[in-house]
Give the backbone structure.
Amino acid sequence: MEFIDPNVVDLSRFQFALTALYHFMFVPLTLGLTFMLAAMETVYVVTGRQIYKDMAQFWGKLFGINFAIGVATGITMEFEFGTNWSMYSHFFGDMFGTPLAIEGLMAFFMESTFVGLMFFGWDRLSKQAHLAITYLVALGSNLSALWILIANAGMNMPEGAHFDPETMRMQFESFVNLVFNPDAQAKFVHTSVAGYVSAAMFVMGISAFYLLRGQHRQFAARSFRMAALFGIISTVAVITLGDVLGRLDYEKQPTKIAAIEGLWHTSKPPFEPWILAALPDDAKQENHFEVGVPLVLTPLITHTFDQPITGMHELEDAAGPRIRAGIEAVSALRRYGVTHSDADLTLFTQHEQDMGYGLLAARHAPNQDVTNIPEDQIDAVVKATQPDILPNVFVTFWSFRFMVFLSLWFFALFAISAYVSLKRRLEHNKLLLKLCMWSIPLPILATEFGWITAEAGRQPWTVFGWLPTFLSASSHGVSYMVFSLIGFVLLYSVFIAAELYLMFKFARLGPEHDSMEPHAQLHAPKPSAFDMHPTAP
Amino acid sequence: MTKLLRLAGLAVALVISLLFAVFVGDQGPWYFAWVIGTVMIILISGAGAIMLDAQSNLSSDEEI
């Protein structure tokens, strides 16, 4: 077992977190905006009104900017698995590579092919054909997310795979189990619909900007209303699917759910409070203060009033026997690699499910070798390993709360916005319009916090319960990691600056055609959606 | 003949949709919920825009 410099592991983790978070600034908008464009274009095809075509073309332009930069930031991540996480790729490549390959060959090719037709086919295709293309772009981008999240769900809840002692890696077992993994289902819908919320806020915020300035009023009012209705239903869906994910974590990832809730000791149903705010101390394994709402936690997580939620101290205690069994499993596996005896294989098979816990103990074993721990030191190694099963509680706890508080804000904002829009009182509510405008970046923040919750909460594993993170990285030098990290930060910062510059520029310019009269029909053939001839407001 | 072909095409689409609903609804309820939910979100937001057109037609004021 080769040990990687802990600094390299930390830098690899930091680099992946950074590239993933950068990439995910663009993804949600792509996921949601495609379906919003489809909705706008559907109304155009049904009603034949020019203003809806203008809407689809204008918001499509902003989508195009976001899509291009999103693709550029995403491609590098796929290479990172091979370059920085070679042990993980070896161990879990079968399971992880399959959905990624399908994503590239099916979904990404699909959306990339049709996105060109969507932009340049306005005057070359029939209305119905172009609408079908727009739907295919939306479907393609969301199928991309589906396959990525199927891969991610495999890391959090390995289903459809088994460990093969001959090849020393997880072998592909069932494609159906991989695709229909409950974690993949809930995570995909939660993430996809979070993208809808991001797009709805984006459209609503920019429309609010026009309404505040009295520009493009009819265009903005329709965009605002569509976005508000799109957003309110999406927010309800996000919250619902978040609850489903919480329930799944309760069953399959108890350490994650305990960290999310800052629960150091097993809960006492039904009165256990849901902690609104606390200061978790990972070193002392306690919360310094707590502000909670009684009676909420048990039904929220367990959907019952009498089931307890296991706390982190109890989970540590329960991990003791698993670490001991895991040490047995790793030792038997090492011997089997040499002897190929049935006795070693049988012993390994008995404790196979705990192998990951044995690997986790490697950091505390003499010479970092769990196969040669003297009998009198095993207890000390197990005891030292037990706290390692927990993720960083402070990060997991607060990232989850920021996400939840933001989602409640979105629910309130969309609900009020939809109501005011339906009452046609938008221009009388300047404060609401300003709040919508300033809330544009918040869904992006919320989705970032969501990712931090999911991935920080998965620690200390790359493959939950099977492969510890500190064994998953490649053996690079620290200088190489620092150099590539600086490169990524500089490059991606340029991408973000370009995105923001272009977004602000085109959003300020507004729609190409400002049909003040919503029923006006402009029959004159128009140039492509990328040609900008803004009309003066 | 064209109508018959169109009807046959729609019938095939209906059968595929039913099979999809039965299989995915059973194996992957949340995937199915995503399909249904997304369609619903699109329809409701589109209906909201059409409703605004109707409101504009019915009233003489310039309120939005």
About this structure: DSSP finds two helices and no strands in chain B. The mean pLDDT of chain B is 88. The CA atoms of residues 11 and 51 of chain B lie 32 Å apart. The two ends of chain B are 48 Å apart (CA to CA).
